[in-house]
Backbone:
């Protein structure tokens, strides 16, 4: 996909996020929207996956370590064809395969159950290690929140990944700067994030999380990096794309009401129209 | 059992030895440790299959997560550490990264209970059975001797799903060395028949319960002894059948009386055939430093302790 196609798809993914969370009357829109471009790039451009064969043996793997932003992953998987887009409105409802946090047993395309922060990165490391043990060339991607990296287990996993030189592992930190209790640097600062991963023997790349040229270049660079894992610090805007949610911590884990939903969808429709004009 | 010719071996040794055999049979078997390979006795596996032994350093939570990731790709990871850290420190990782997705991870927890000995209460885990049996879908096993421990490890490898195995540090007598011995997950064994009281035991307490049964017999009390290796799923049928025969049940375990074998047995009996039950185990207390045998005696988990408590219970 070219950048314009990616932008259009990411905008559809964002509409799916807003629709799902509105329907559920609960969920985490802020961190889903901030990572929507990353999700879109991974599933539409970067990863070797097959929506018709979600358990394909040597597929690339993705672990959503910041599992509360499942609506972003679900919307991406649905638009990629793993399951119907219509399923998104069943998010968090009784009997739905779309659980509040990712569940690998129920949802096609989910490679690992997650949601308890700090744990997903360890299982991603285990997958990357498995590929190395068997001499396979599949790659493993995991997305973490910038608040999540306050969990000690993240650094246990990072120490191991650096030590084992897992160059088939890409850790992405969605650095939107906000966690439930406020700005990350006020709650318990994780900064400098890049220098921490460097100290754990990662190759580190800082990017604008909403610039597809930068995203493309970073994943290419990760692929070309040998002998060490890569950490991509993706500087993002929480709530990206929805005017009243952007950089507003109160949208970390709150669903829009009907009125707010209309405004949010109008914002995203406007972005969509501009992208069509750009195409013309 | 006081016979000095009885062979003694710690079940953690059995764990390591069984892993070496499994390693030869199945290339998907991998073993993980958290800087305790020398103590968990997986060192023999490491020597035989260095590429399939993963030392994760002193980071048990990450180790469990790595095992979960390995299992998603078809590996059969055996995670090894002391029970305190495998079931205690990493409880939530076991619950959420292994139990919830029902991944094929095997947890080999050594140094369980007070027979850790001199290291003291900080390392004597008397809560692991309770913790592990609350996780849906988790198989929980506590072998009584070398033969049962090796059989349990093999059975765990064949079973698809999460399994917790509890092993001890101290050498214990081999009691299952007989030609017709066979092992099945979820099946208990009547190791001595009796009619006055049923003693349901697990781990090192099985051998000790057999000693107690000898002492009870000398006083005219006929005790039936049941060896329960698999605490979950529990062989309820066998226990209820015996309770119907004897009318009184004693449970014996090197674990807290809260949430362990005793609780599991009570759960089974209270819904089907309620009888008086005496729970022998750690009575809601922490252990302490000391030689393993002295601790087992002090906390009344040895043959004499089980004998005396059972006798009092029957009065």
Residues:
């Amino acid at each position: 996909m070219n950048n314009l196609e990616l932008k259009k798809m990411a905008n559809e993914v964002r509409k799916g996020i807003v629709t799902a969370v509105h329907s559920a009357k609960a969920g985490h829109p802020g961190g889903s929207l901030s990572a929507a471009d990353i999700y879109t790039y991974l599933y539409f451009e970067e990863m070797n996956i097959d929506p018709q064969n979600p358990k394909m043996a040597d597929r690339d793997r993705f672990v959503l370590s910041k599992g509360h932003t499942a609506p972003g992953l679900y919307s991406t998987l649905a638009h990629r064809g793993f399951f119907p887009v219509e399923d998104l409105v069943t998010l968090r409802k009784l009997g739905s395969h779309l659980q509040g946090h990712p569940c690998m047993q129920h949802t096609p395309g989910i490679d690992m159950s997650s949601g308890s922060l700090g744990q997903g990165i360890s299982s991603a490391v285990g997958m990357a290690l498995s590929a190395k043990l068997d001499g396979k060339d599949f790659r493993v991607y995991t997305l973490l929140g910038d608040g999540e990296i306050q969990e000690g287990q993240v650094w246990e996993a990072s120490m191991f990944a650096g030590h084992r030189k897992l160059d088939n592992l890409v850790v992405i930190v969605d650095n939107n700067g906000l966690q439930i209790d406020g700005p990350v640097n006020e709650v318990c600062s994780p900064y400098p994030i890049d220098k921490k991963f460097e100290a754990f023997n990662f190759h580190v790349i800082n990017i604008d999380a909403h610039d597809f040229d930068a995203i493309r270049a970073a994943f290419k660079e990760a692929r070309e990096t040998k002998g060490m894992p890569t950490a991509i610090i993706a500087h993002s805007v929480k709530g990206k794309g929805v005017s009243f949610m952007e950089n507003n911590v109160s949208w970390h884990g709150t669903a829009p009401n009907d009125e707010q939903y209309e405004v949010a969808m109008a914002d995203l429709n406007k972005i969509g129209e501009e992208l069509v004009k750009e195409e013309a | 059992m006081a016979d000095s010719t009885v062979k003694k071996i710690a079940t953690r040794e059995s764990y390591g030895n069984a892993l070496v055999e499994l390693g030869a049979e199945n290339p998907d078997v991998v073993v993980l440790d958290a800087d305790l390979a020398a103590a968990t006795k997986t060192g023999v596996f490491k020597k035989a299959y260095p590429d399939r032994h993963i030392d994760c350093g002193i980071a048990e939570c990450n180790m469990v997560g790595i095992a979960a990731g390995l299992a998603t790709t078809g590996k059969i990871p055996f995670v090894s550490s002391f029970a305190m850290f495998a079931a205690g420190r990493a409880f939530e990782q076991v619950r959420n990264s292994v139990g919830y997705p029902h991944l094929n991870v095997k947890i080999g927890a050594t140094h369980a209970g007070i027979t850790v000995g001199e290291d003291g209460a900080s390392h004597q885990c008397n809560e692991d059975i309770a913790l592990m049996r609350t996780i849906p879908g988790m198989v929980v096993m506590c072998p009584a001797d070398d033969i049962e421990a090796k059989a349990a490890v093999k059975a765990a490898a064949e079973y698809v799903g999460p399994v917790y195995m509890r092993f001890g540090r101290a050498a214990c007598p081999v009691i299952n060395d007989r030609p017709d011995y066979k092992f099945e997950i979820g099946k208990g064994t009547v190791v001595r028949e009796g009619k006055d009281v049923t003693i349901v035991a697990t781990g090192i307490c099985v051998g000790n319960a057999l000693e107690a049964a000898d002492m009870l017999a000398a006083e005219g009390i006929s005790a039936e002894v049941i060896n329960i290796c698999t605490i979950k799923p529990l062989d309820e049928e066998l226990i209820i059948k015996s309770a119907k025969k004897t009318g009184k049940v004693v449970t014996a375990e090197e674990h807290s009386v809260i949430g362990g074998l005793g609780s599991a047995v009570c759960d089974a009996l209270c819904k089907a055939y309620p009888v008086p039950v005496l729970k022998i185990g750690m009575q809601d207390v922490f252990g302490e430093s000391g030689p393993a045998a002295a601790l087992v005696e002090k906390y009344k988990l040895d043959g004499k302790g089980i004998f005396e408590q059972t006798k009092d219970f029957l009065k």
Q: What stands out?
A: The two ends of chain B are 26 Å apart (CA to CA).
